[in-house]
Design a protein that fits this description.
Largest sheet: 3 strands, mixed
Number of strands: 9
Structural class: alpha+beta
Strand content: 15-25%
Number of domains: 1
CATH architecture: 2-Layer Sandwich
Number of helices: 8
Strand order of the largest sheet: 8-1-9
CATH class: Alpha Beta
Shape: globular
């Protein structure tokens, strides 16, 4: 075994052990890397989610995709192996009607990616956000195979232009984080902000557990659909008009 392999094994073993150390309920070392304070842990009282109104989402608009790339330091010039945390998908129903659908990690309450991860690198925070700890990810890609939404990417090439708040690394799996670094400062995801700036306001973000929040009121008032609801994963992303 080479020194590089030995060093990698030591780092992975240390990372896997430390990933499970809770500094406070809902807070791990990975959370602190995003600037979370021990006095403000993620809480199960909150469940962050999105409601996407496909009646307002235009097929020729990719503002959400561009904003995601810029915010998270992803390559704008895409290749077959480029990471993409949000993509536009066109769906056609039996009547020939086409809908343009933003697809990203659905932040499931029962995430299959977490179930199959052998190191605990894929995990769900107390507030429902599903993340990948790149320090303990070994690049096995089991989570990619388990995800029914094809929402995860594998980093094949060395990363450039990284954002300090969004660390990335070759050989790791990654996906939409709901812009957790923004949320932990009281902000909203970049895709939501960009969509609102276009005037379409097709994406609504908020706390699904708060009955007084706008997103909870709309979910309660309008017919919403979860993609692959038959799997009973209880996604945190819902759609109107699907």
């Amino acid at each position: 075994m080479s020194r590089v392999d030995q060093g990698r094994r030591q780092i992975l073993a240390w990372g896997a052990a430390m990933a499970g150390v809770a500094l406070a309920p809902g807070v791990t070392l990975f959370d602190l890397a995003h600037g979370r304070a021990p006095t403000e842990p993620a809480s199960s009282k909150v469940r962050w989610g999105m409601l996407v109104d496909l009646n307002k989402c235009a097929s020729d608009c990719d503002a959400c995709v561009s904003a995601c790339d810029k915010e998270n330091g992803l390559p704008t010039e895409k290749t077959a192996t480029s990471a993409q945390w949000i993509r536009k998908v066109e769906l056609k129903d039996m009547r020939g009607q086409v809908r343009s659908l933003p697809m990203m990690c659905q932040h499931c309450a029962e995430p299959p990616c977490v179930d199959v991860c052998p190191t605990g690198a894929s995990f769900k925070r107390a507030d429902g956000i599903v993340l990948v700890d790149r320090h303990t990810c070994i690049g096995c890609r089991y989570c990619m195979m388990a995800c029914p939404y094809k929402a995860r990417s594998f980093v094949h090439e060395p990363t450039t232009g990284q954002r300090p708040e969004v660390p990335r690394g070759k050989g790791c799996v990654e996906s939409c984080t709901l812009c957790v670094h923004r949320i932990d400062r009281g902000g909203i995801p970049a895709c939501v902000e960009a969509c609102a700036a276009t005037g379409r306001q097709a994406i609504l973000f908020g706390n699904l557990n708060d009955p007084e929040s706008e997103i909870a009121k709309r979910v309660a008032s309008y017919a919403t659909t979860a993609v692959r609801a038959d799997l009973r994963l209880d996604p945190g992303v819902r759609y109107v008009g699907l």
